[in-house]
Amino acid sequence: MVKDQEFLEKKASYCLGLAKKLGATDSSVIVDNSVSETVNFRNKKLDESNRSDDLGISITTYIGKKKSSISSSNLLDDNLNILIEKCVDTTKNTPEDEFNSLPDQDLLAKEVKDLDLYDDTHIENDQKIDYLKKLELAASNDKKIVNTESSFTQRKTNFVLANSEGFCSGYKTSSFTASSVTVAKDEKSMERDYEYSSKCFLKDLDDANELGNASAIQTIRKLSPKKIGSEKIPIIFDKRIAKGILSTFASAISSSAISRGTSFLKDKVSQKIFSDKINVFDKPDMLKGLGSRNFDIEGVKTDTLKLVDQGVLKHYLVDTYNGKKLNLKSNGRCGGTSNLYFENGNISFKDLLNLNSKSLYITETIGHGSNIVTGDYSVGATGFFVENGEFKYPINEITIAGNFKDIFQNITLANDLEFKYATNSPTMLIEGMVVAGK
Amino acid sequence: MSNFFEKSDLSRKEAENIISDTLQKCDDGELYLENSRSESILLDDNKIKNSSYNSDLGFGFRAISDEVVAYSHSNEISKNSLKQSSENLKSTLKSVKGTYNHEIPKSNKKYYDSINPIEQKSLNEKIKILNDVNDYLRSKGDKVKQVTANFLGEQKSIEIIRSGGETLSDVRPLVRFNVSVMVEKDGRKETGVYGVGGRQSYDSYLKDENWKSVCDEALRIASVNLESKPAPAGEMKVVLGPGWPAILIHEAVGHGLEGDFNRKKTSAFHNLMGQKVASEGVTIIDDGTIDKRRGSLTIDDEGTPTEKTVLIENGILKNFMQDRLNARLMKTRSTGSGRRENYRHIVLPRMRNTMMLSGKQTQEEMIKAVDKGIFAVSFGGGQVDITSGKFVFNCTEAYEIVNGKIGSPIKGATLIGDGPSILKEVSMVGNDMMMDPGIGTCGKAGQGVPVGVAQPSILINKMTVGGTKL
Q: In terms of C-beta density within 10 A (0-12 exposed, 13-18 middle, 19 or more buried), how is residue B298 classed?
């Protein structure tokens, strides 16, 4: 069982009290506990079970404008005494930084709404095994599938965030995640693909059959890929890749990248950075949302932000420290975005495929090819050649490259948004990128 | 060395009894205990941004029966917690009837000292160096707009208790020092990153103002990139410089030669043992025994002494890297490659220091042999799809080669290739093998472990360069 609020609050207040006694002028502490249980299957047999019980504490102490932090998984008072003493001591020896401080009191979250993030249901390992058996049976239906691996995880977490200004709050969350990875083989090639479902509530999880089927279909269609020539061609990103464009956008508008001057989107607020019809939201109060929260990791309240309105950048993602540096108020985005998404476009998936006579549909990218300083982008890719709206044949061993400044201005979105992850995008068409192949 | 039972209601004897009771009919398994301390001190934007310290303690209890692994971990070392874990393992492995394998090789060799690098240098000294780095780089001219530098230090003590009470232990120091610099000229910004590290004290790398050479290298890379032109797109010849570019080897063949993927037949290499997978003259080893290197280990995380494993010898595939589980199921022996990020994770077969050995040619000969291609000197990271065998890595410093001569620097681009065939495209192997500077971390199944790479300069006949210039 995950630790209750009372236990976590007691530890938190012990730390705050001790830090004060040892000379800290301010302090904040997060105590969290997560208990997860996973069962892995492989080729229709039990492969692994894994139970983890993780308790952690992290404390930041301030002496005036000096700051330092410690973290530990050992919550015995003996150990906490040694660590907090060390933390305060280190704080004394760390140079001052005028922007160091706890969040402004009036920005702290006052109320904690019930966002429906915790499902008390406990699923026993035997039930997980039943689910995975069904999943792998569906996944291995076709003879071309030569290997199946699947996994089911139940995770329950609880946390308390407290600071010396009197803030003390936290809540439980849960997640149930199932995934399927399949390998298909023919004479010429061996390919792997996956499908996945993660939900706060067990009853919302995708059906085992559907998950296994989807994984198998997505894998088999990749067999016997071709390599194409180098050319400029319209690129369509599957939803699971398109969301990565949003993640890069989010790191480029984080107040730390902006204040350090290391983002290609510095000084771009109020400017048009996306094509006309693009709207981007970050909405923390979605019920059962995988990125939902009541406040950020500093305790600052979070409101919904329309980050991009008709292509125009409206906000950075601001935390307390960088906000003070940029002379902006924190908008509760310390630690990043919540439920970040592109609003739907006004064209169907099918019509998007038909917009150009030839295009590439990308289902997977590999490599870390996003540079947020310059905006340059270059990654390896796998997908399909699309002609007249139809998938013609699989392609691989190509790269796609461009610069985000151009990519953002050339996006067309379909109207098929769904909330499968914390960051979500409809299917995305990008014109003007360069493909390198043969 | 840590005494894990000192402050616990659980005595060593009681722990041994629970372990033996749980594992008696299993094929393998152990209790893994870990106590680590780590620090991070970061200078950024002219200020000490962060000084943090972490202490982590916990255990992972593993039981293996045939192919099934049951694992349970907790950070509470207590009678109650270990018993609960034991129950959890037993509930997964309902009817076990194996024979516990007590055999584990022994060695007295050690590849690093049991030091705590964090305590060997005071906080004030570390802060002073970071400030000196900042002042030094910013004195190099107006174009330097941002400097980030950090110290990362760690000491990890581990103990492995096996069924019957056999105990193995290791104390592992690890440090890293990194510098990142951003420069700007005519509105254009570029960054350069460099670092050093390994399993010894910070001073071994930074004494006598050695940190200046780290700064100079980061600034050099950033300055080169300021002049870079768009990279070409398409297939061409590629010359790789020595040292760190060996992450090509790590991605292209290293992961595909890990035992688990081959036992499960999901690696593109699983049916190629004894076959020619590389050009003649290409020999690749994975070595855990190099003194004080980042990827070296005295014993792996199952207690097996590490070794120098020959993976590819003169072009022929010779061995996979194995942990105990995959070795047993593939009827071979562990190569001391069983590793885990920490007690929260299960053991997987992983790389240590992966190296391509020197050949006879010079880098000059390779450049001369290229009409049109690129010369890649430094890389960011890489990634591989072990099933299709396709891998990528990102250049952070590269030049075009025109008619046998090195030309202008080109922008960072991704290079993509096919693991099982790329080493057959190696047409020259240099005589200049070099180790990387000691900064690599390899990710697999969500676990990061420190690794090293090494190679000489090599010429690859054909690779796809992911630039924007058609």
A: buried
Of all residues in chain B, the percent with pLDDT exceeding 90 is: 91
Question: Within 10 A of A137 (CB to CB), how many other CB atoms are there?
Answer: 14
- 3-state class (DSSP) for residue A129: helix
Task: Give contacts of A50 with chain B, Cβ < 8 Å.
Answer: 70-72, 346
Give the model confidence (pLDDT) of A328-382 as tens digits.
Answer: 999 999 999 999 999 999 999 999 999 999 999 999 999 989 999 999 999 999 9
SS3 label, residue A314:
coil
Contacts of A438 in chain B (CB under 8 A): 234-235, 464
Least Cα distance to B354 among B291, B308, B306 occurs for B308
- Report the predicted TM-score, pTM, of the whole model to 2 decimal places: 0.93
pLDDT of B412: 83
By residue count, chain A amounts to 438
Cβ A366–B70 below 8 Å, yes or no?
no
**Could you tell me if A149 and A47 are in contact, meaning their C-beta atoms sit under 8 angstroms apart?**
yes
The reply to whether residue B464 touches residue A436, judged by beta carbons under 8 angstroms, is yes
Domain residue ranges in chain A: 5-220, 231-436
pLDDT-derived band of residue A150, with 50, 70 and 90 as boundaries?
A: very high
Q: What is the pLDDT of residue A368?
A: 87
Residue of A nearest to B144 (CA): A261
Q: Please choose, from the candidates B219, B244, B223, the residue with its C-alpha nearest in 3D space to the C-alpha of residue B434.
A: B244
Mean pLDDT, chain A, integer: 96
Q: What is the dihedral of CA A268, A270, A272, A278, to 10 degrees?
A: 110
- Mind telling me how many Å the CA of A52 is from chain B's nearest CA? 5
Contact across the interface for B414 and A52, Cβ inside 8 Å: no
B208-239 b/e (C-beta count within 10 Å ≥ 16 → b):
eeebeebbebbbebbbbbbebebbbbbbbbbb
Q: Which residue positions in chain B have pLDDT lower than 50?
A: none
Interface confidence, given as ipTM, is 0.90
Tokens 């997860």 -> residue: A36
Q: pLDDT per residue over B31-40, tens digit each?
A: 999 999 999 9
Helix (H) or strand (E) holding A128: helix A125-139
Q: Roughly how many angstroms between the first and final C-alpha of chain A, as a whole number?
A: 55
Whether A279 contacts A289, CB under 8 Å? no
Residue of B nearest to A51 (CA): B72
Question: Tell me, what amino acid is at B140?
Answer: K
- Phi, then psi, of B20 in degrees rounded to 5: -65, -40
Q: Which of B71, B127, B233 sits opposite A401 (nearest CB)?
A: B233
Q: Does A347 contact B at CB distance below 8 Å?
A: no
3-state secondary structure A255-302: HHHHHHCCCCCCCCCCCECCCCCCCEEECCCCCCCCCCCCECCCCEEC
pLDDT 10s digits, A378-424: 999 999 999 999 999 999 999 999 999 999 999 999 999 999 999 99
Strands in A305-309's sheet, in edge-to-edge order, are A312-313, A305-309, A280-282, A340-342, A423-424
Which residue in B has a C-alpha nearest to residue A76's C-alpha?
B76
Q: What is the pLDDT of residues A154-189, one digit of tens each?
A: 999 999 999 999 999 999 999 999 999 999 999 999
Q: Which residues of B touch A30 (CB under 8 A)?
A: none
Residue numbers in B near A369 (CB within 8 A): 392, 394, 412, 414, 466
Q: CB A179: neighbour CB atoms within 10 A?
A: 19
Cα-based torsion angle of the residue sequence B312, B259, A240, A311 in order, rounded to the nearest 10 degrees: -50
Q: What is the pLDDT of residue A276?
A: 92
Smallest Cα distance from A111 to chain B, Å = 31
So what's the pLDDT on residue B1? 58
**Distance in Å, alpha carbon of A70 to nearest chain B alpha carbon:** 5
The Cβ-side half-sphere exposure at B9, using a 13 Å CA radius, reads: 8
Query: Is A5-220 a domain of CATH 3.90.1570.10?
Result: no
